[in-house]
UniProtKB/TrEMBL annotation:
Residues 4-38 form a coiled coil. Keywords: Coiled coil. This is SlyX protein. It holds the Pfam family SlyX. It comes from the Bacteria.
């Protein structure tokens, strides 16, 4: 019977670890989303600065001639 308790304890521990990992994964996903939004904002800001400085649309924002 002691084996049964040991298995139940191990299963409970593994469930807690999976839940902790799931929480951490969700937290990192939110952090990645925030960082992506910040990078997009910085890219937009820099594209605006390039446009104001040179008077043209930055090359990264231009469609290729075949479009």
């Amino acid at each position: 019977m002691a084996e049964g308790w040991a298995l139940e304890e191990r299963i409970a521990q593994l469930i807690r670890e999976v839940e902790d990992l799931s929480d951490e994964l969700a937290r990192r996903g939110r952090e990645i989303d925030l960082l992506r939004r910040q990078v997009d904002m910085l890219l937009d800001r820099e594209a605006g600065r390039e446009f104001e400085a040179g008077g043209t649309v930055p090359l990264a924002d231009q469609k290729p001639p075949h479009w």
